[in-house]
Amino acid sequence: SVQIEDDRTGLSIETLKRAFLDNLFYIQGKFPALASKNDYYMALAYTVRDRLLRRWLNTAETYTNTQARTVCYLSAEFLMGPHLGNNLINLGIYDQINQAMTELGLDLNELLQQEEEPGLGNGGLGRLAACYLDSLATLEIPALGYGIRYEFGIFDQEIRDGWQVEITDKWLRYGNPWEIARPDWAVEVKYGGHTESFIDEHGNYRVRWVPFKVVKGLPYDTPILGYKVNTANTLRLWSAEATESFDFGAFNSGDYFGAVHQKSNSENISKVLYPNDEQYQGKVLRLEQQMFFVSCSLQDMIRILQMQNMSLEKFPEKFSVQLNDTHPAIAVAELMRLLMDEHGMQWDNAWNITTRTFGYTNHTLLPEALERWPLKLFSELLPRHIEIIYEINRRFLDDVRIKFPDDPGRLSRLSLIDESGEKYVRMANLACVGSSAINGVAALHSELVKQTVLKDFYDMYPEKFTNVTNGVTPRRFVVLSNPRMTSLITSKIGDNWIKHLDELRRIEQFADDPGFRYEFRQIKQAIKQDLANHIKSETDVEVDPSSLFDIQVKRIHEYKRQHLNALHIIHLYNRIKANPSAEITPRTFLFGGKAAPGYYMAKLIIKFINSIGEVVNRDPDVAGRLKVVFLKDYNVKFAQRVYPAADLSEQISTAGKEASGTGNMKFSMNGALTIGTLDGANVEIREEVGAENFFLFGLTTEEVAAKKAAGYRPIDYYESNNDLRQVIDRIASGFFSHGDTGLFRPLVDNLLHKDEYLLLADYQSYIDCQEQVSQAYRNWDHWTRMSILNTARMGKFSSDRSIRDYCQNIWKVQPVPIELKD
Ligand code: 26V
């Protein structure tokens, strides 16, 4: 019989080519002769999307029919990165598509580069959410990601004269082939106005909220396909629009401009992602955003429940809702409001449902990142929610009094309202009271959470606290980003490791095999060469691919100490200047990362690094032994290029400050060795890879605390350490700023007189440790062995393991496999 493959689902090379050309014609409206690279990208994206849709619809149908228990991951950020490559990997059609494109005279890599990535997150927290969606789908767990469809994601970074310049990220400019709007499921969100109480027909006390404005939330769905399974979960992002009813009011009265103004006002809510991570600002629009996506999402869950003919009582059995930091914590009050005011439930019942529903993940200990809203601002925007919060607080503080009588200090610390000065609503406190599980993101961090920021909640509810160490997806950060290493590993142990990362241990047996070592090293070399070419084309700086690639990529923040790395560069430079024939292991220092636009010191650090590069890169005494490059616009796409090319991963935060870190995991999986402090997940990475395969330096969390308590004086280190003094003096002299002694003075003064993050206290330990790194790198063979062992022992840090932990200990949810039928 004749087999005819469907153009929308067939996987033979011929069908793929035909489908691709068909999409080029019917969707992009182009003949190949006139098509741009972007047209080709779009045609390919639609060709791949067609092949996902059956799985996506079957998944939704199965969840509906089985009333499956579902995880809802509420996050203000999802830093997804490009979809095309990942979908090719997870569908298992990368090679076929590659061949089809080649046969059409196109280069798949070029098309992959064409995708404008959805940068709907700042950094670690948003990227973690994206890794978790990948693992949830791969483990066949029913899950929905809920967030905001920002029209402008994280800004694009340019570097001009060494300074960061921010450019708006118009990621939707050419359309987004991965999303489908679902206008039928739009909902409304209320803001402002006042509340009125009344007695309903059953004689119950009820509250009616008369809002000042109403905004429509429109859902856009993106399929999240698991790796080589049929599960395709949904990422549902809400976009804000004007409600028609409001427009009509103004329109009918002839106020056309008023109506349009109102419309653009509503649309502001999902306009832009706030780019300042770890730095809280009490901006009304930000609270509007949080309320917006939380209310849309909870209303959507209620709709799903009712569509499946389930009672509201079943809410906590149907859904487990995870709060990704406190950004969605208003959900506690909003679910109470929906259950009581919109669905007539009584307080005790509603509270029982609410607290069984939520879990809260803490992602930072930095006091400046803790969200607290000025009470006045909060009450004006959310008059009903503040009433509910007062009532939650009244009942909660009664419980506290019973457990801890006569302890007013404790009551004021635990209160949902900060009344120590100007009044604030404390979002972490609301999240803790309203959740049945509270977790940190690495073993050390979870301990510190219990001992510091949430200590009083730990005393009150010790049983709620757990740890879930972060993880990253090996599909994107190994298979997609490092195809050469992937084939080498697979040629030795098969491809089971991609879903069961613990199996990477099986390559340990090859760590002493000279042939394997040779191939492993050759691959690293080839990738470094690729990155060197990329750097040459982007910056015109020539870097030596045989030099040690020493890389620090992450958001720029003082606690992450990019400037400690910079001090080490100056130290090496000074050594060369003092003795031009000094034996220095050639190194290439690569930096990447964005600074929050309002964070002056972080921006100065970028200028500082670029200024050092300017001097070092062209000094003939250095003779190419040191190169310093700041690569602009670090994002997911670029991250995928960088991790595989690293020899050394810089994870040098002040102990106790980095909650987990996830870049540390991505580097190590790709065979980079880490130089790091005992901070965040570094502690666990070192345990796994072995202390002998990790470069440890610096004070411990306890030592940091003790030093601060004893009255830390950074100037003492400056005065007693000649080498350090020469480094600092060289900066202060204007050597890196064309003689301008003022430019970096804020940096120098801060280090000498404040140094909140103890760079000077850790300086010598860091320099000594870097010297060990340089020595170790001279023994290629041993270095490669350590590198192989790093990759082999990273199984624990697959986000699949993290998600299994969440499923077992917090969400109590099981896999629901999906059958592929039409
Ligand atoms: C705070 C704010 C404040 C208001 C403006 C927008 C915004 C966005 C993000 C944040 C908090 C960011 C916290 C964060 O990203 N923490 C990181 O979480 C990672 C995943 O758990 C973890 O690996 C990093 O160590 C931690 O810094």
From TrEMBL:
Presence of the UniProt keyword Glycosyltransferase in the record: yes
GO biological process, one term: glycogen catabolic process
InterPro entries the record matches: Glycg_phsphrylas, Glyco_trans_35, Pyridoxal_P_attach_site
CC annotations in GO: cytoplasm
SUPFAM superfamilies documented for this protein: UDP-Glycosyltransferase/glycogen phosphorylase
Signal peptide as annotated in the record: none
GO molecular function, one term: glycogen phosphorylase activity
Protein function: Phosphorylase is an important allosteric enzyme in carbohydrate metabolism. Enzymes from different sources differ in their regulatory mechanisms and in their natural substrates. However, all known phosphorylases share catalytic and structural properties. Allosteric enzyme that catalyzes the rate-limiting step in glycogen catabolism, the phosphorolytic cleavage of glycogen to produce glucose-1-phosphate, and plays a central role in maintaining cellular and organismal glucose homeostasis.
Protein name: Alpha-1,4 glucan phosphorylase
Organism: Thermoleptolyngbya sichuanensis A183
